[in-house]
Design brief:
Layout: E1 22-23, E2 35-36, H1 38-62, H2 67-71, E3 75-79, H3 82-92, E4 96-100, H4 115-123, E5 126-129, H5 138-145, E6 150-153, E7 162-163, E8 166-167, H6 175-192, H7 197-222, E9 231-236, H8 240-246, E10 249-255, H9 264-277, E11 282-284, H10 291-300, E12 304-306, H11 319-335
Parallel strand pairs: 3-4, 3-5, 5-6, 9-10, 11-12
Antiparallel strand pairs: 1-2, 7-8
């Protein structure tokens, strides 16, 4: 387990100075010459959250009540995959019925929808999605279901990174962006179910504090003098937002797209990069076989560790936090060598 002389605190009375978000500018991956980008990012998020909660209040006051709201029935909410389920469930609590579309162990990249998915969506009052192309199969299932459900895109107004000209959908791996996603979900649910708008807002505020503490813990431990490196090799291109948020460098990926194995020439280039830049962290993912990574590990002498993209796991409200805290332990171990 992680231990430290002091743990991050959300209390406004905490006397420990606020730690800044650091972003490395050292091409070799060292911790020197970082740039403080914390305050502008936090101001942006605070303004965004304030705007969202004004909209939540407006929905509570002014939006007409649908048939289910009048009858006091719970609305039926369908989410697409694990992190979206977790964020939504933390916002709804017991105020709505929440069902996830993808079965346990299935990630969004390789998924193909089934007749059962069509039925689930056809019965839904609300469909919550990540957006940004993460659910490339969603358009087909939505069209086939003929659903009249309100669709909530959790990525609305979230700053987007492009990878080879295409939006990177992995926004859920940045706690800062998760706060914006949760606010979007709360606002959408309030509009769909105005009777419970205040409850959604209250639940969201509780969860946002948990996500903020998660981010604070990452800042605290990754800024420790024990951290010797800031660069790593990932299995697939999932950690761009994550690396940007915590001042890390994703040097390369083994698979640009999950399931598309690289050729020998590409792997040889990754091996050369590792040797040239003296990269010490090589990460696999629990959702995919580490077989291709074993070749790189054998050539470089690196240990393969697992960094979870949080795309699959138990459908429980605390799953995202548990996965991300396990990732933090893995990072501390790998980057301290």
């Amino acid at each position: 387990m992680i231990s430290a002389p002091c743990t991050p605190c959300l209390s406004p009375d905490c006397s420990r100075p606020e730690r800044s978000i650091k972003k490395t500018a050292d091409a070799a991956g060292s911790k020197q010459n970082r740039v403080d980008t914390n305050m502008p990012q936090r101001r942006q998020v605070i303004f965004f959250l304030a705007t969202i909660f004004v909209l939540v209040l407006a929905a509570f006051l002014f939006v007409g009540r649908g048939e289910k709201t009048v009858k006091g029935e719970k609305i039926r909410v369908v989410t697409t995959f694990l992190p979206i389920y977790v964020f939504t469930k933390n916002v709804t609590g017991d105020l709505a019925e929440v069902e996830n579309l993808l079965p346990p162990g299935a990630g969004p990249h390789e998924y193909s929808f089934t007749p059962g998915d069509v039925q689930k969506i056809s019965r839904a009052d609300v469909l919550v999605m990540n957006g940004l192309g993460a659910e490339a199969w969603a358009a087909g299932v939505i069209k086939e279901s003929g659903t009249m459900a309100k669709i909530i895109d959790a990525s609305v107004s979230v700053p987007v990174r492009l990878r080879k000209g295409t939006p990177d959908p992995h926004i859920w791996l940045s706690p800062t962006l998760v706060q914006m996603m949760v606010a979007n979900i709360a606002a959408g649910l309030a509009a769909a179910d105005p009777k419970n708008a205040a409850g959604y807002q209250s639940n969201a505020e509780v969860y946002l504090k948990k996500i903020q503490k998660l981010a604070d813990d990452y800042d605290f431990y990754l800024e420790s003098p024990a951290i010797k490196r800031t660069d790593f090799i990932a299995f697939h291109a999932a950690f761009g937002y994550f690396a940007e948020r915590f001042g890390l460098i994703e040097r390369a990926v083994i698979e640009e797209f999950p399931g598309k194995e690289p050729g020998a020439k590409y792997l040889a280039g990754v091996v050369d990069l590792i040797r040239r830049e003296k990269v010490r962290a090589l990460f696999s993912e629990p959702q995919f076989s580490p077989k291709v990574l074993e070749t790189v590990a054998k050539e470089t002498g690196l240990r393969v560790r697992q960094l979870d993209t949080a795309e699959t796991g138990p459908l429980l409200p605390d799953t995202y936090e548990l996965i991300m805290r396990k990732n933090l332990e893995t990072l501390i171990e790998a980057l301290s060598e």
